[in-house]
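Name: ABC transporter permease subunit
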Amino acid sequence: MIRKLVGRIVSTTLLLLGAAAILLPFIWMLSLSVKPRDEIFSTEIALLPSRLEWRNFVVALTSTDVPLFLWNGLVVVLGILVFQLVFAVPCAYALAQRTFRARALVFGLVLAGLLVPFHVTAIPIFLGFAQAGILNTYWALILPFIPTAFGIFLFRQAISQLPTELFEAARVDGLSETAIVWRITFPLVLPAATAFAIFSVTAHWNDLFWPLIATTDPQLATPPRGILYFRDEESGDDVGPLMAAALIITAPLVIAFLLAQRKFTQGLAASGLK
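Structure predicted for ABC transporter permease subunit:
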């Protein structure tokens, strides 16, 4: 009994220490975002400010292009997610519930695609987009991420666990394959779609690598790219408004994850990734 209690205390302590190590940068960012400038550069380390400096948020929202960066990020992540779902769900349905000669080979290629990092294909994609003249556009930020091997794999795993009789009954009732995909299959794999949406939105909202390559126009800057424009040429980074802007940019992801946490867990469990 005592041994079990000690083990539980040790595991809980380790979890708390791990959580504190992960959350500490976010807590420090929150602290700096509401601190006056003189306290930010003080030699004393204090988590709580002597007074709340809401001006940092006002400066971040009115004196910079943070609202534009948020809008650009929203357009890019929603554009990527919609096109990914439009292509990944039918592909996954075909691999899971349709029988054709090269199905195993195609699924093997999808698995191989999971092993290829995006950075390997970045230069060929950049050269192709330059030839096509679509650099410095929203399409340059969206198109490279529409083919998603991870999305096809995730949905394929979820759809393969649905009973085959359900789809046979739908065909007997006269539904087309397209109708089966969007009217029957997609609602049933909605938890997996939620999990995939969180993965996709988080990855592309925080992506800095590709926007640095594909765009040079500040009007198209996504949130991480926009943070780089947040400079004070005379005194370096204006830390208070900079942290306020970082908090504004991070908050939507945290809120979305907390709201969809249950669906996210269900989606991973349904697809066998948990």
